[in-house]
Amino acid sequence: MSNFDLAGRKALVTGGARGIGAEIAGALARAGASVMIGDILGDLGRETAAGIAKSGAKTGFVALDVTDDASWEAAAANTVSALGGFDILINNAGIEVTALIADLDAGQFRKMLEVNVIGVGLGMKHAFRAMRPGGAAGKGGVIVNIASVAATIAFPAIAGYSASKSAVDRLTRVGAAEAGKLGYGIRVNCIYPGLVANEMGLKLANDVVAAGLWPSVEAAVGDVVGLTPVGRLGEMRDMTDATVFLCSDAARFITGAGLPIDGGMGT
Predict the structure, then answer these.
(1) Is 221 helix (H, G, I), strand (E, B) or coil?
(2) Does the domain at residues 10-194+235-261 carry the CATH identifier 3.40.50.720?
(3) Catalytic residue chosen out of the listed positions 161, 184, 214, 245
(4) Domain segments of the chain: what residues?
(5) Could you report the per-residue pLDDT of 201-247, keeping only the tens digit for each?
(6) Is 192 an active-site residue?
(7) What is d(CA 15, CA 9) in angstroms, rounded to the nearest whole number?
(8) Rounded to two decimals, what is the model's pTM?
(9) At 64, is the secondary structure helix, strand, or coil?
């Protein structure tokens, strides 16, 4: 059996209805895991789960507002019940609001912190409670938090987003320390995805142009590529392969780490 085989694992992917979350869910399923899609987008989430199920993987959907404690409690219980366990959490749900510091809107900033930071913290809380000895699943497990290269670089117009993703890094490292010290049998890591030409990435490119920072989307993207030693934007498979690795036994001695998947941009 390959060290990257996830057969028998039970995963919950937040923000799994679309984008990188959906791609990660599909990759986990292809590696052998059963996958629960957690999202506020009900119709799209069920559609994504149904698409993954066509490959023969066991999947499901649960409505999940990551900012709400009770919603998390129900999602964790639903995952254990529907999949027969819970030993992988992918804390992927997140939002990005582009704004110059001089134009920060308190309401938008607060919402970003609620989703990106509180959402991750609550996810770790309920995963710990379910996965630790005596929990509803009780067999230990793995948590992978999705941070961002924004946590490691100073890029204009994303101060709030950068702050939130830097907090994800700290939550990851403290969570790993607590899980180890308390004997939970849970590894906690995060990845720092670089810019991908998906919906969020293209929105950012358009937003920085609108803010007057670059003359065109092409110029903005060109400068990002120029800052990336590998010489290209990220691709979804770059992010999904790294996530599968961290969930697998190949990463069995890795915890409290942040793995840059950014083509060297953050170095």
Answers:
(1) helix
(2) yes
(3) 161
(4) 10-194+235-261, 195-233
(5) 889 999 999 999 999 999 999 999 999 999 999 999 999 999 999 99
(6) no
(7) 19
(8) 0.96
(9) coil
